[in-house]
Design goal:
By secondary structure, the chain is α/β, with parallel strands linked by helices. Helix content is 16%, strand content 40%. It has 5 helices and 18 strands. The strands form 2 sheets. Strands 1-4-6-8-10-12-14-16-18 form a 9-stranded mixed β-sheet, covered by helices on one side. Strands 2-3-5-7-9-11-13-15-17 form a 9-stranded mixed β-sheet. The longest helix has 26 residues.
Length: 404
Amino acid sequence: MTTATQTPAPAEGHIDPAASLTDAFVPVQTRSERPTSFEPADFGTPTGREVNWKHTPVAKLAPLFVVAEPNDGVEYSFTAGERYVAAPLTAADAPRGEVFLAEDVVAAVAWQGSKDALHLRIPREEAVADPIIVEITGRGADQRADAHIVIEALEHSSATVVLAHTGAAQYAQNVEILVRDGASLTVVTLQQWDDAAVHVASHQARVGADAALKHFVISFGGGLVRVNPNVELAGNGSLGHLYGLSYADAGQHLESQVYLHHKGAHTVGDVLYKGALQGENAHSVWIGDVLIGPDATGTDSYEANRNLVLTEGARADSIPNLEIETGDIIGAGHASATGRFDDEQLFYLQARGIAEDEARRLVVLGFLAEIVQKIGIDDLQSELIEAIEAELALTASVSAEASA
């Protein structure tokens, strides 16, 4: 690239800017075949009929379909780890764009609108003991911002990065994650927005040989939050653990469309998302796509989504998909389940003298705590357990009002 205004060369499947998406339109059902472009106009405005938008209330996202002007709807600060911030990256600066390819109009808008990308860089062979915490605070529900964040763990390094979102904003966000050979990286994106916030994010990662990525999407707050992780296990022996936790209240829409691509040989993937829902029109969406490529021999992969519906009026959409292009694998599978309380669990606890309300609390807490315990950060785990307890208190209030 020769100038800062140029964008990375298009990959296979890129949209031809000279062609319209409406010309000879053929719906793309397979995640790996979706077109990509860095130009928002190439995608057009979503109608809600597209395969990747049909579960999303697109009308609420209208501000995110155009580049932010001015681009100051959120502010960034560090409570730990600021020394790992490298020089900001323009569109022409490596490693920005090494992995990232915009799959939808919001990602393309975030690419164009973020002139300088935040770059977190973990030096080679350095083990960072304490989490690097980036506080992303919205300045108001009517404020817009676009962002591109690059998180790079160099060879044989290890670190944990937490992106903590609070306040309110209309926020289009790209997160590009590079885990070099032999590195170990944990990325946690924590959404504790106010109810009026709208947050749409595309996370794209590449994991090198004998490297490992643990990726968490934790969503409690926000009116509409859509965080879509896309992870390529590119190197032989790479590991990808993708976990999610959501708790949707009345009127909230919490969504993740997960894509795990096994590309290298002897890769291991584990995807587990859990959600709880309560209140009228509480809505969660999980779509999980796993692709085991033709060269991904010896792969072991599993994906699952579990949802617990706590009150009337809540809805969970859960769609697992699996593509396998080689027969030489250790194993692959997927599962999805959505339901209400297990009456047998409640009976078991009540039979031992535990009141019904407390029994319900213990069941939900036990169901969700599995994801919390995988994070491995004591302070954050305690914070999330407190957040779950607060949600459970709201559940009791909603149930009491319904029965009154």
